[in-house]
Amino acid sequence: MADRSDRLRLHGFNNLTKTLSFNIYDICYAKTAEHRAAYIDYIDEAYNAERLTEILTQVSEIIGANILNVARQDYEPQGASVTMLISEEPVTAQAEPGLRAERPGPLPDTVVAHLDKSHITVHTYPESHPDGGISTFRADIDVSTCGRISPLRALNYLIHEFESDIVTIDYRVRGFTRDVAGYKHFIDHDITSIQNFMSEDVRERYRMVDVNVYQQNLFHTRMLLDDLDLDNYLFGTDDDELDSEEAAAIRDRLESEMLEIFYGRNMPGPPSDNGRRP
Question: What CATH number should be reported for the domain whose range is 2-263?
Answer without folding.
Answer: 3.60.90.10
